Amino acid sequence: MVTELNETTFKDFIGKSGIVIVDCWAPWCGPCRRMGPIIDELDKDMAGKVAVGKLNTDENQAIAMQYDINAIPTLLIFKDGVAQEPLVGLRPKEDIISYIDRL
């Protein structure tokens, strides 16, 4: 199950070992709503390999500013707690998996 993140839980979640994906979204964003089922599928397909979380940028603006999120959806990717290049915009599941496999 995708973990809902906030300013209290974010730091511990991204600090997990391995690969972490954080879907940065907002409820009013059409592409974000279309990305939702893709994120849910990734969570199921990559269970045990990748930790998947969601962050509502409207409710957690300090984190959005910290990571310079200017467009949503944005996928923040972390490997062993270190930020990788984010993926910005609506992406097919295959593109996201391909990116993760290269890490």
From TrEMBL:
GO terms for molecular function: protein-disulfide reductase activity. Keywords: Disulfide bond, Electron transport, Redox-active center, Transport. GO terms for biological process: cell redox homeostasis. The record marks 23 as: Deprotonates C-terminal active site Cys. Pfam families: Thioredoxin. Transmembrane segments: none annotated. Coiled coil: none annotated. One of its GO terms (cellular component) is cytosol. Disulfide bonds join 29-32. PROSITE patterns: THIOREDOXIN_1, THIOREDOXIN_2. The keyword Methyltransferase does not apply. InterPro entries: Thioredoxin (IPR005746), Thioredoxin-like_sf (IPR036249), Thioredoxin_CS (IPR017937), Thioredoxin_domain (IPR013766). Residues 1-103 form the Thioredoxin domain. The active site is at residues 29, 32. The record marks 30-31 as: Contributes to redox potential value. This is Thioredoxin. It comes from Methanomethylophilus alvi (strain Mx1201). The lineage of its organism: Archaea, Methanobacteriati, Thermoplasmatota, Thermoplasmata, Methanomassiliicoccales.
